[in-house]
Amino acid sequence: MxxxxxxxxxxxxxxxxxxxxxxIDLWASRLPDFLAGQQDLPVLWLDCARLEAAASExxxxxxxxxxxxxxxxxxxxxxEGLRLDLRPGLTLLSVCSEAARLWPLNxxxxxxxxxxxxxxxxxxxxxxxxxxxxRGDEAFTRALLQxxxxxxxxxxxxxAEAGFDFSHWLQQAxxxxxxxxxxxxxxxxx
Length: 190
Fold this sequence. Notes:
Blueprint: H1 3-16, H2 24-28, H3 31-36, H4 43-60, E1 82-86, E2 91-95, H5 97-102, E3 117-124, E4 127-133, H6 135-145, H7 150-160, H8 166-176, E5 179-184
Antiparallel strand pairs: 1-5, 2-3, 3-4
């Protein structure tokens, strides 16, 4: 998108969806919705806007520290009775590989470039980070974000990728700060 095209698009967006308050970043987070309604828009532009909006959301998310004591529940309660809570602002997006390639730190694994990739965005420190997830990790993380218990999330991951390794996912979640806490699931909440 050239500078003049971007300026025209931004002006049209401003007219169609005027800001409701002074936080311009929150107004800009509505850009993907605006772009989705435009005719003949390249998927790349929409996916780039979606990634930027998710990064902005991650950077504004409430800060939480890992509840390290809750990790002991992994050895005490069966997976059906556990839920893994991920940090606020963590988002999964399916985007075209070209949009993911434009993100500063990404090396795309060899894959069919016509197929979408799964991007995980979260805040590390004060900056948004992005990582492309393999199918099993994507299915597992998506299930957790949708409120599945640990057993259900594991089933989803193994259905997507037979070689899914929970211990590898957990290690990465702890190192990268994706995991907030492990919590018991009451029968009443299911």
